[in-house]
Amino acid sequence: MKKALIIVDVQNDFCEGGALAVPGANEVIPYINLLMEENEYDQIVLTQDFHPANHKSFASNNGRKVGETITLNGIPQFMWPDHCVQGSFGAEFHKDLNISKATHVIQKGKNSDVDSYSGFQDNNHFVKTGLDDYLKYHDIQLVEVVGLALDYCVKFTCLDAVQLGYITCLHFNGTRAVNVKPENGRDAIYEMLQNSVTVLG
């Protein structure tokens, strides 16, 4: 069975000192590097949040405060600080992440009108990123997922992978949660377990 490692959004803005730093984010980088060293993956895919500066998920572009929720294209949208703006240092992969083994990069969130947490598609489920096509082309049946953040982009990437028919495993030690509310990370794990995601301790 062919397997892929999907490394979600290990970018400067989500790491220590970044615009939207995930607590403990830097701790996952050595773990992810070790996974790549010690395992034979048929494909290693990096996803990259890659927003235009006028992105509608940014509080600053809506005259809102970070943490508020608005309705965007008919679905709730949490208001984030500006992050992972195209061409910025914050959008780059963290320097400690070994990207030399990566076989493909998927950029997401490029449409200013809709956010894209999942590596597979935008939040409205209108536009695919091409990740599913890429994995299917390479006969991938099993995906292992790591990266940032557990309760947003990692969770939705895992849930979509299951929906698309992949055997889906999350590395618990390879992810961290934003935890806007303290229970968000825990709830994300429960939701994934209920939806056939295997969580590897």
Task: Write a compact overview of the structure shown.
The protein has 201 residues and is α/β, with parallel strands linked by helices.
Order of helices and strands: EHEEEEHEHEHE
Low-confidence stretches: none
Number of H/I helices: 4
Basic shape: globular
User: What level of helicity do the residues show?
Assistant: 10-25%
Organism: Kaistella pullorum
GO molecular function, one term: nicotinamidase activity
Protein name: nicotinamidase
Keywords: Hydrolase, Metal-binding, Pyridine nucleotide biosynthesis
Would you mind describing this structure in some detail?
Pathway: Cofactor biosynthesis; nicotinate biosynthesis; nicotinate from nicotinamide: step 1/1. Its EC number is 3.5.1.19. It holds the Pfam family Isochorismatase. It is an enzyme of class 3 (hydrolase). The protein has 201 residues and is α/β, with parallel strands linked by helices. It contains four helices and eight strands; from the N terminus they run βαββββαβαβαβ. Helix content is 21%, strand content 24%. It starts with a strand and ends with a strand. Helix 3 runs parallel beside helix 4. Strand 6, helix 3 and strand 7 (167-176) form a beta-alpha-beta unit.
Q: What are the main properties of this structure?
A:
201 residues, alpha/beta, 6-stranded parallel sheet, two-stranded antiparallel ribbon, 8 strands, pyridine nucleotide biosynthesis, Isochorismatase-like_dom
